[in-house]
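WARN  no MSA supplied for this record, continuing single-sequence
INFO  ligand: zinc ion
INFO  echoing inputs
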Amino acid sequence: MPEEKIGDNLSDVKTKNRSLVLRLVKKRGFLSRIELARITGLTQPTITNIVNDLIRAGLLIEVGTSDTRAGRKPILLAFNDQAFYVVAISFKKKGFTVALTDLGPNILYRRDSNYSLLENTEMALVELQKEFIHVLEYATQSLSLILGIGVSVPGPVDPESFTILAHPVFLAHRNLDLRPVLREYDLPIFMMNNAYAACLHETWGGKAKEAKNLIYFMVGETVGAGIMVDGKLYQGADQKAGEIGHTSINVFGPRCVCGNYGCMELYCSTKSAIEKALEAAWLGKSSFLKKRLREKENTLSFQDLLEGAKGNDPICKEIFASLGQYVGIGAVNLLNLYNPEVLVIGGEIALAREFIESSVQQVIEERLLYRDYTSSVIYYSQWGEDVTLLGAASLVLDHFIAGDLGRF
Ligand SMILES: [Zn+2]
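INFO  complex generated
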């Protein structure tokens, strides 16, 4: 690994200041040159130069005037989300998605595939290459504006070698190098565990843009957390930090695939909720679930459970209330461990907010340490399942705004 540079050359300072201005306008929305000078401490002429350069590069746009002051009204600047594009790829346990996004990031075009890397690696890689090329063809007029490829994966990755180290249902895949599949047009590739990517997305597109200490508690089919400390993602020595889903909450509980016993994921995941729903359907406790089970040839999904709860099925609502308690327990553990400014509850579970929120809140009120003087704020992610895909796009956005891609 090359030694880290300590000094700053003049060109580095220039990039650093541009990066700072872009970051501020992207995160805070409309700002004037005067406000930028005040916030950054840079002189007015310096800010004017930077802003002019960034307008010329198409990265900032002037969007009218501020009406807060009398006299000459300052012109407001906005970040141009359409200046560049990103290819975002998100792997799930079953299937994957390849999408083209702008710098919002907003999904402009997507290709969803049911091929699972876990179940049929070779076919999934062939399909991945196909879908990737589809997306590039869609973007054919703007290929030179694609900044890079962001990939989010449910498990640890080695960002240096572009390798998926293992899949959470465990170790079936070791060291899967994605480069041969994604080498078309030689775009830079960035990879990250999906909970970390989701955490990053909350700081770019979500409600936690200003948070320096943030936990993204992702509850879906699997359970994990993205941890941001002092504005930096904490990934651990081997990109394995945040595996709260595999902390034991019942030492006498059933054995988990990871080898541990009574892991949180066994109680607090969409998978565990679906298992309960199946049981209720088989036992005839819920006529809604029983009917749905028949219609869908003995399967049920999280979506079915949501529909049941929305239609006031008491069993579906009960399953969510119980799931909410476990989400609350996970939240308490994370709040006690990290004392973040913001804890985001995300992943698929966030779609069920209205059915879990009161149980989550009750557990936090009853069990959190020092609960009378805790300032941590709890948000529910607004992105649903797509958060890991948007996270993959945000990963590229993050590198771009840091100046790593040499595009400004
Ligand atoms: Zn486990």
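The pocket of zinc ion is lined by residues 246, 256, 258, 260, 263, 265 (CB under 6 Å).
INFO  checksum written, moving to next record
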